[in-house]
Design brief:
Helices cover 40% and strands 18% of the residues. It is of the alpha/beta class and 272 residues long. The chain has a single domain, classed as Divalent-metal-dependent TIM barrel enzymes (TIM Barrel).
């Protein structure tokens, strides 16, 4: 079924079982889901989260078939260590692309790193784009609190051939845009400052008060009492004719907050 915007949730290192958020998505009829390879071991040697090697071929095939039968679109979030400026980062990204291919995801998300500038990042990501093209997977580049709209404008100016081929676009992270020093507490200005040559192909939505990357579920932070910012955000998506996933990037307690956010988003989208 073709839906312009699908709303889904994401795996979380905070969940007791790596598959718990996915089972929640199935139970509550979410039509999108993001797999985030985020595995951590604490000082007591207790491990949380998951990584690609934890999912054998049988489990990957089961996830793919479940997504197909339940009409769920998958995306894949590469691990935090996946910085293409470093050789080990490239290795992580290639693993994420292979995992995405195996489960039927059509997009792999990673962060923008401006340590060496836009041109260096665009050059470093070329092996990733090559593997992604072969796997028929798109790449989305996400803004962090440290990357500005101008960083994206410069980077995508260097990536025009890949953009024209439909291989790459931006993941707009609403909460991170709200923390960016260039657009502090004004994620709409961040979005408005992006060049028309930066294609928006993926969304992470969460909120904060401009103080820290809290990853609050929508309508539990500033938008709880005044949702005009979210309304304006959705109107801008409509003007851009955005068609893709909107990922609720948290695992709250209670997780029912995810269902509540989806319901309210659908109501607002229906009024645009």
């Amino acid at each position: 079924m073709n839906r312009p915007i699908r709303i889904g949730n994401q795996t979380a290192v905070s969940s007791a079982d790596p598959l718990e958020p996915f089972r929640f998505a199935l139970e509550h009829g979410f039509d999108a889901f993001e797999w985030f390879a985020d595995k951590k071991t604490n000082a007591d040697h207790f491990t949380q989260g998951w990584e690609e090697a934890d999912f054998d071929p049988a489990l990957r095939a089961h996830i793919r078939e479940t997504g197909r039968s339940r009409d769920i679109r998958f995306s894949m979030h590469a691990p935090w260590q996946a910085n293409p400026l470093h050789p080990e980062g490239i290795a992580h990204l290639l693993q994420s692309i292979d995992f995405a291919r195996d489960i039927g995801a059509d997009l792999v998300n990673l962060h923008l790193y401006m340590d060496a500038g836009a041109q260096a990042y665009a050059e470093a990501i070329q092996p990733v784009l090559k593997r992604a093209a072969a796997a028929q997977v798109r790449i989305s580049i996400e803004n962090t609190p440290h990357t500005s709209p101008d960083d994206f404008n410069q980077t995508f100016a260097c990536l025009r051939p890949a953009v024209r081929q439909g291989l790459i676009g931006m993941c707009f992270d609403l909460g991170h845009a709200n923390l960016c020093s260039a657009t502090h507490n004004d994620y709409l200005r961040y979005l408005d400052t992006l060049s028309a040559e930066v294609p928006l192909i993926h969304l992470h939505v969460h909120e904060n008060y401009g103080d820290a990357d809290r990853h609050l579920p929508l309508f539990t932070g500033p938008s709880r009492d005044n949702d005009v910012g979210i309304r304006c955000f959705l109107e801008r998506l409509a003007r851009r004719q955005y068609q893709g996933l909107m990922i609720l990037e948290q695992w709250p307690r209670p997780p029912q907050l995810l269902v509540d956010a989806r319901t309210r988003l659908r109501d607002l989208l229906g009024g645009i």
